[in-house]
Amino acid sequence: MTQNIQEQNIKLMRLMKQAIDDNLLVPGFHPLLQTHFPSRKTYLLSCNLKTATGQIIPYKSLRKLATMADMGAALDRWMVKTGLQTLKRMHLEQPEANIIIPQSASSLHNREYPRWLDRQSSREDVSIRGLIISFRLSQIAKNLKLSSECISGLHQLEINTMIDSFTTHPAALKILKAMGSRYMSAAPALLKENDDTIKRIINTCHRHSILILLPGINRAEDVNLCWSFGADLLEGNYIHPPAEDTDFSFSPVIV
């Protein structure tokens, strides 16, 4: 049984490498609603992979495969290149448009990453206005020194950052304030936290001019209503219900 699992993992890792090398990944763009600027286009970038058998491997699974195959940095580079090309097209329609690009610890803990991203934006001839680079809170916590260097380097280039999967961990708010990120994305468990916890997080974020994203809202009852006075961006099927003809790939725009 263990051998079968290992063989399957090896096949999946080879598939991941081929997907990146041969550009087989399919980008996905999840529309976000800005509560204060509802007409402003903002997208969260993801991707998936369709196998030869028709199976769809979603973004979260691809991230795990990339880590197993030591290809986290390669997937990061693909995401950045795709995101920058998309942002360039979005700016033609709306200069204030935003795109959020998730990145892994491979980039977060790489001192050269900010300079690489700066060179990449110059190569693509795209303004970094509206570019938001997202890192998970757990990745930041693993190496605060390297994380701070990377995030500070991005801020010096006027590239905004987001702390993703934000939790109620005692150190979470301290990390959020120390990193100086412009955005925070709540972890699923945080959406239904108690009133006092939510109010404390909202007040702290807004006191430090941090915008709050609530992701994965598929039903109204999934979210504590206390968020209604503090959430700045919303994502999920409840916010943008997909229709039969909805195409979440770019360039169709959903507002």
TrEMBL record:
<protein>
    <submittedName>
        <fullName>EAL domain-containing protein</fullName>
    </submittedName>
</protein>
<feature type="domain" description="EAL">
    <location>
        <begin position="9"/>
        <end position="255"/>
    </location>
</feature>
<dbReference type="InterPro" id="IPR001633">
    <property type="entry name" value="EAL_dom"/>
</dbReference>
<dbReference type="InterPro" id="IPR035919">
    <property type="entry name" value="EAL_sf"/>
</dbReference>
<dbReference type="Pfam" id="PF00563">
    <property type="entry name" value="EAL"/>
</dbReference>
